[in-house]
Amino acid sequence: MKFLKTPYIIACALILIATACASQQKLTRKAEAVYEAGEYAKAVELFEKLLENEKSRVNQAQYNYQLAECYRHLNNTRKAEAAYRKAIRLKTREKDAYYWVGYMALKNEKYKEALEAFKAFQKLIPKDVRGQIGIESVAAAQEWAANPTRYIVENVKQINSREHDFCPAYMSEDFLSIYFTSSRTEEDMKQTVNQVSGMFTTRLYESRIDRKKGDWNKPVMLLDTTLNTEFDNGALSSSPDGTTIYYTICKMEPGKNIGCQIYTSSLRGGVWTSPQRVDIVPDSISVGHPAISADGLELYFTSRMKGGVGGSDIWKVQRISESAAWGSPINLGPEINTESDEDFPYIRKDGVLFFSSNGRVGMGGFDIFRATKDDAGKWRVVNMQSPINSPGDDFGIIFQGNTEKGLFTSNRKGGRGEDDIYSFELPELQLIVTGKLRDMSTKKPIVDAEILLIGSDGSRQSVRSKIDGAYSFKLNQYVDYIVLSAYQGYLRRKINVSTRDVFDNKTFNVDIDLITMAKPVEIPNIFYESGQWILNDASKKAVEELGKLLDDNPNVVIEIGSHTDMVGDAMNNMNLSKRRAQSVVDYLLQKGHDADRIVARGFGASTPVVVTEEIARQIPEFTVGTVLSPDFVIQLPRDLQDKANQINRRTELKILSSNYIPKPEFFEKRKNKK
User: Fold this and answer.
1) HSE of 645 in the Cβ direction (CA atoms, 13 Å)?
2) Which residues contact 14 (CB under 8 A, 6 or more apart)?
3) Taking the chain, what is the end-to-end CA distance rounded to the nearest angstrom?
């Protein structure tokens, strides 16, 4: 009997091991199924339980990676970062672990660690653009945090709770009422936990501003059960008058990730109609985050459906009238969407699109971006930077009309709950263009001349120059301007000023020098090598400015006159000056200007300069009215000789006629430039 005991013990041990293995395998299958269903909160519990008894380093690495993915989806950045790092230490086969370590570290403001992780990921997968974007984000996050924009951002404490409060929508044209989404709990109300998000079921709430106090009233849950269903409700968009809403309902079944759909409801006699699913995609495709345009003819939304750029993309549908059916979904393309996620679109009345993305250079998590269309119809995307954006997730922005004022959502540090609603406002930007109108040759002010400011937004302002030639205009942001000056006896001149890329107070100092039609005027910044007549790059820029004058003054015929100093043979100087004048004319002709309007003439050293007040101010040794002739220059000290010769070496513009009739090609060329 003693000898039979050992095999018996061994057999029992094997049975226990087999049972444990079977149990572990069963738990693994369950964890994988829950994970694939997107029930990340529940999956966390299962993977943590698996790791308690797992001995295989390979399995440990895989479970830690999946655990990290769950924490990432649940927005627990610290636990996600720790789990990703552990998976890497265990030699995980998932190369994305290196990227997500960097991403989580960036959100946790651990910039050194984030940079190291992104560089490791880039070395591992050089062709994956996310590595370079991550590296650039580390630098940008620190730069933008240190140099925030002028926006004033405040937590709206009266609205927020300890739970998730997000995605507000204005419900009145006076912007005094909002609906928003919240997972807060209510007394005597059954609360269920969403196993995907890990938070309580979300419902729609309302808050209004107390006109007397100027503060938001305590939020109240919408009791209308037609809107607040038993499922997750939220991510709402409203028509400007608040009578039609579009919002997301995410239905759930245990073990299934059914997804979300967009529903719409209208206010009829003070009562909301029963929500109807918006028929834009098959019901098997999950869509959400609706944003309706002010005219009700465009509906933006997000989806991971096929045909996108990658991840969650922003799409839109259009219709010809509010009673017409929606057309087929249109993906906004790679100008907006990336291989990562773009969510929470918002289309402002002026056509500016706002959205959140985690696939562009940003501060960490989801950042809010502004997208405007250029003249060619292409989107131009700009990060809104700090303080709108933060290392956390920033999303769900809305505006009060076209003003730079509104609300958005963030889970940044210092909030009251998980996601909080914040207000933002951009103080009036002080943008000014100012300067003096002067005679180019004498630098004396031109008084009482009309100066026009014409904006790409259709604006038009007019002032007259003051006694010192001064003028000033206030500018608006995101506008291209033309400052146009004209005065009798002078050539008209246009100067371009743009505020498109200006995000702080700025004064544009623009002095405008007009060219008189009464006498030759030196063209500044045209230089040649000694004895040469070829235009260098700097001189070409000056000649191009001269070309603009020709465009602005289509009725003039000009003479380009080149002058040399007294040094060298007179005949050689004459030939050199002719070639230099012709080089200017030739360059203008290459740029498409009419040959009948431009004449080249060389003067050699035959026409020395007469000292003006401006020259006398710069060189006191020269007296006003003195002719810098060879006889005068030769008796000067060497340094003054050099200065005199430099003054005499010049290219001048002279108006020969002001009644030229442009050819049809001129107007066609101007039309094509617009």
Assistant:
1) 15
2) none
3) 105
